[in-house]
Structure formats: C-alpha cells, structure tokens
Amino acid sequence: MTAPQAQALLEREERHYRERHPRSRAAFAEGEQHYLYGAPMHWMRRWAGGFPLCAARASAAHLWCVDGFEYVDFCLGDTGAMAGHAAPAVTAAVGRQLAQGATMMLPTEDARWVGAELVRRFGLPYWGFTTSASDANRAAIRIARLITGREVILVFNGCYHGSVEEAHVGLAAGRMVMRSGVHPNAVDHARVSRVVEFNDPAALEAALAPGDVALVLAEPCMTNYGLIEAEPGFLPRLRELTRRTGTLLLYDETHTWSAGPGGYTAREALDPDIFTIGKAIGGGIPVGLYGVSQGVAERLWEHAPRESVRPGVRQSSHLGFGGTLAGSAVQVAAVRAVLSEVLTGDSFAHMITLATDLARRCRTIVARCRLPWVIAQSGARVETLFAPCPPRDASQLARTRDGALESLLHLYMLNRGVLITPFHSMLLICPATTAADVERYVGVFQGLCEELSGSAAG
Ligand SMILES: Cc1ncc(COP(=O)(O)O)c(C=O)c1O
Fold first, then answer.
1. Nearest Cα to Cα of residue 274 among 259, 288, 260
2. What is the dihedral of CA 357, 361, 362, 368, to 10 degrees?
3. Average pLDDT, stretch 164-182?
C-alpha cells in the first residue's frame, strides 16, 4: 500500500458518499446558515466525508439516516449510547419518571437503589451526581484542591477528560503546551497543570516530587488518543507514588467502563481515591457521577460538614459544584434502569465475547494482508491503530497516525453500512450488538484490507 493509493481510494469513497447522501448534504448546508459549525455541536462536523449523516432514528445497535440507509453502529455516540439506542428498559423508566416529575430538588426512592449499586459495582463508598462527565471531573478537582490545599492537577499526554481546563495541555518535545486549537481561557496552566507521558514512571515520580500536586487525573487505560494500555507495573507504581507524595488519584472511567461491569477499577482491583463516570451510565440522559473513598469523604466533611442545616443558619453554601438538574429524578431513574436491566454483568460478558471475536478476526486479516497495524482491545472496545506495535504513549502513537488512512477506514465502512467513532478508529459493542453485526464489520474490514494490500486475504 502506498500513500497515493490510499489517497485515490479515499477520493473514490468521498465521491460515493456525496452521491449517496443528498438529503444529509442538504441538511448540513442548511445548518451552516444557523449553527457555528453547521450542526448543533461542533464535533458533529468531524465525521469523514465533508458533512455528517443526518440521523433519522436509531434502535439497539442500528441507525438509519435520512437518505434511507441502515448502519450497524459501533460508534454508539462515543459511549453515550453504549447501553444501546432506545434501550426499552431506559425508555420505559425515563418515560415513567417524566410523567411523574422530572426534577423536584428532592431525592426519590430510586436513589436508594442506585446509591447501593454504585458502591457494589465500583467500590467507592460515597457518590454525587452531575450532568456530565466533565462536570464530575470538575467537582473532583475542586474537592481535591479543597482537601489537599494544593493547586496542581497532573494529567497524561494525549488525555481527554472533557471541558476541564487543567487537562487541556499536552507535550511537545518534552515541554507542556496547550492542546491544538484550545485557547487557555485565562487559566495559568504553567501554575495549575502538569503533564507527563503515560507509562513513564520516572517522569511521574519527578513531577510528583515537589509535593504540590493535588490530583492525578487519569484514565486507567488511555482511550481518547487511541487505545494505550498501561504497561505491567505502571498502575501500581502510580498508586504508590501518589500515596507517598500525598497526592490524590482519580480514575476517570467514562470510557474505560467498557472493561467490565465495575469498570477497569473493579476488573484490576484498583484503589483510586476518586472515581468519575458519565455518558453510558445515563443510557442517553445526561449524567455524570463522582465517587470518593472513605478518607476523601472524611476530609471533605471537615471542610463542609454533612449535618443538616440547623434552624437559624442560612442555607447558602453551594460548595462550588453541583448543577440544578444534577441528581434529578429522571437522571436517577435512567441510571437505575441502565444498571439493573441493561449494562448488567451478563451484558458485559456478551459484549466482551463479541469484541474479542471481532478483534481476533481482524488481527488475522491484518496479518494475512501484511498491514503494519495493531488491533487493540480493552473489554467491549476495539481499535485499529496504524502502528506496527502497541504504543506506550501518545507521542509514540502520534508518530504513526495517518489522517488519510483514518478517513479512508471511516468512509469505506460508512459507505458499506458500518459506523465507527469519528475521532479515531474505535469500535464499541453494546448489549444489543449481535454476531451478525460483527460479521458485517469483519466482512467490510476484510474488503478494505484486501484493496489496500492489493491481495485477496483468503
Ligand atoms: C475520559 C473522558 N472523560 C470525560 C469526558 C467528558 O464527557 P462529557 O462530554 O459527557 O462531559 C469524556 C468525553 O469523551 C471522556 O472521554
């Protein structure tokens, strides 16, 4: 395969896409008159092909566009729909709760079940709701600074934790820089952020040594730059170094929940001080959650006691985090439905079996076609990396990224009825994904690999 070959295939697929989707194209052109980036959210323009599909509807693991085509959806709203589209249990629970009052600034009976289940699943004893994973991370940062009295937040190069200012940094030639396209927004990143490569214990030790880091904000397996697994011993070392330096450790499991019913944390018996999650856990309703250890809770209560307000005391303290719709009855009902009926232990077993099968078969195709690619897998998540071996960190992965090849993979799939996440080449399996859906992906993937290598994979 040569770069001009891949470029020629991409141009063919772009023509094909434009010709087959006149209604989606027209919808985007109209959107450009009203929306800053042609669609309600700027991400939406990032799909390959020049304009996004206009979605008509989605159900289970399938989606239909306004031009009448059906797709197997492995993007699943970048995990927002990892419970499956329109999961009947969620639709019923949310519909019931909407009819009985969506938000009342009061807890409901569902909250009792949900609180106990969060502890059972993820292991942390105390929890709070927000309306997004970004907000959960921001609440956690605020708590960490409050109880440690420190300012610095340490993240790993290539991370994404939502619209969290402190995490909008990366490394270029070993120096901290703003992530491309992100304005510093008047935040003094040199003072409040620190960034090191994932899987680099020496750099981590040096960065924590001054004792001024409040929190390490991390995914236990990096998912947002491409899938990068922790090397053996790295996560234990991270835990040991954070403990030794009085730094809190937060695992953001918004994406890595796909590792299993209790996320990476339960699967690998990790012991974070704070845990955040969002997206999939709301089954489509905006939800974020943060859980804290007993130690963090006790330190927080020293600053913000948990006793009910006494008569005569003004109830003005908002702690600086929250959200009027956070913990609403409809959020809690959605989370109960997701945890009790949709993303159950049995569902995860099914999802991981399918993902394992998909990854194994794609590896065989890649090997037969002699393509220098890695098929990475973490639980119900699979990713094609255009790298000859599994990357250790984001800088290494960045050197192998190939925009044209990535766009080709996305469009080739889309033109043949398969959707993958637009930002990199991640596939997600949901409880409703079937073996036939996997078959469709593998068949199309094989076609692409054969075209690229100029051979029949056999
Ligand atoms: C690991 C991680 N944390 C947080 C977020 C932010 O989620 P939200 O956009 O729902 O706030 C994302 C979004 O992709 C994410 O991948």
1. 288
2. 160
3. 96
What is the number of the ligand 1 atom nearest to the C-alpha of 162? 6
Residues with C-beta less than 6 Å from any ligand 1 atom = 78, 132-134, 160-162, 219, 224, 252, 254-255, 278-279
* Distance from the alpha carbon of residue 133 to the mean position of ligand 1, in angstroms: 5
Are the CB atoms for 67 and 22 separated by under 8 Å?
Answer: yes
Q: How far is the CA of 160 from the centre of ligand 1 (A)?
A: 7
Residue with tokens 């029949």: 456
The pLDDT value given to residue 217: 99
Give the contacts of 338 (CB within 8 A, at least 6 positions apart).
83, 87, 89, 90, 280, 281, 282, 283
Question: In the predicted model, what is the mean pLDDT of the chain?
Answer: 96
- Residue carrying the six token digits 């959960």: 136
Centroid of ligand 1 to alpha carbon of 219 (angstroms): 11
For the four alpha carbons of 201, 204, 209 and 212, in that order, the dihedral sign comes to: negative
% of the chain beyond a pLDDT of 70? 97
Cα dihedral 214/219/224/226 (nearest 10): 130
Q: Under a CB-based contact definition with an 8 Å cutoff, are residues 209 and 245 in contact?
A: yes
